[in-house]
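testing teh design pipeline on a random one, pls ignore if ur not involved
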C-alpha cells in the first residue's frame, strides 16, 4: 500500500519549489518523462471493472516499462483521522510487450497522458518520493511529441511513500510532517480534495529565489 497527498502549483513557481526540495531532501532530482496509458477491462473479464496503468519512462536511454494497479482506499475512523490517503497499490516492472498482453486479455485503452517534470527520492522518517510534473494529453494516439498541457500554467505535485498494514500510521505521519515544510508554496491534501493555489505562493517563491541568488553570488 501507499500513502499519498497531492497539490498544484503555478509553473512560474516550480523553480522555487525545486530549490526548496533540493535543500530539504539533500539529493539530486531525477528527470521524468512518463507516458502513462490507462487500460480498463472489458465485459468478458467480470462485472466489476478493473483498471491498470502502464507506464513507460521515456527519459531513459532504453525506455523502461511498469504496470501499476491502484486498489481500494482505506476507510473508517482511522482513515478519517490522518491527513493522507492510504490505498492499496501494486507495481511491477514489465517488458515492452505488456500492452500486447493486456489487449489480448480484453483490456481497452481508456486514455493516455504524458507527465513531464522531475522527482526527488529520499529518506525522512520513511522512503518518500516527491513528483512535480505537467500533465499533458495526446491529440493523436501515442503521439507523445505532440502532447499539450491539460491545465496550462499549472503543475501537479504528488508526495508518496510505500507503507504496510503494520506501519502506515508512522509513514503517514512522516509524509504529513514533510508536507508542512512546503506549506508556503502549496497545500497538499488527499487526492480528490481540491484546494487550489495558495495565496502565499508568490511571496514564498520570491523569498526562496532571492535566498538562492544570494548563495550563488
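output:
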Amino acid at each position: 500500500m501507499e500513502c499519498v497527498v497531492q497539490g498544484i502549483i503555478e509553473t512560474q513557481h516550480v523553480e522555487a519549489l525545486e530549490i526548496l526540495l533540493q535543500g530539504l531532501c539533500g539529493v539530486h532530482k531525477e528527470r521524468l518523462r512518463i507516458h502513462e496509458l490507462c487500460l480498463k477491462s472489458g465485459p468478458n473479464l467480470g462485472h466489476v471493472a478493473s483498471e491498470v496503468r502502464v507506464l513507460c519512462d521515456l527519459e531513459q536511454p532504453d525506455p523502461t516499462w511498469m504496470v501499476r494497479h491502484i486498489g481500494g482506499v482505506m476507510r473508517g475512523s482511522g482513515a478519517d483521522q490522518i491527513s493522507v490517503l492510504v490505498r492499496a497499490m501494486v507495481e511491477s516492472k514489465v517488458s515492452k510487450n505488456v500492452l500486447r498482453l493486456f489487449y489480448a486479455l480484453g483490456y481497452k485503452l481508456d486514455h493516455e497522458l504524458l507527465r513531464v517534470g522531475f522527482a526527488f527520492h529520499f529518506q525522512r522518517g520513511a522512503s518518500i518520493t516527491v513528483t512535480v510534473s505537467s500533465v499533458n494529453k495526446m491529440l493523436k494516439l501515442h503521439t507523445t511529441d505532440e502532447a499539450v498541457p491539460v491545465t496550462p500554467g499549472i503543475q501537479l505535485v504528488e508526495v508518496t511513500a510505500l507503507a504496510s498494514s503494520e506501519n502506515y500510521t508512522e509513514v503517514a505521519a512522516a509524509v504529513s510532517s514533510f508536507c508542512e515544510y512546503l506549506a508556503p508554496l502549496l497545500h497538499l491534501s488527499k487526492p480528490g480534495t481540491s484546494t487550489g493555489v495558495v495565496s502565499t505562493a508568490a511571496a514564498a517563491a520570491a523569498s526562496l529565489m532571492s535566498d538562492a541568488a544570494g548563495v550563488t553570488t
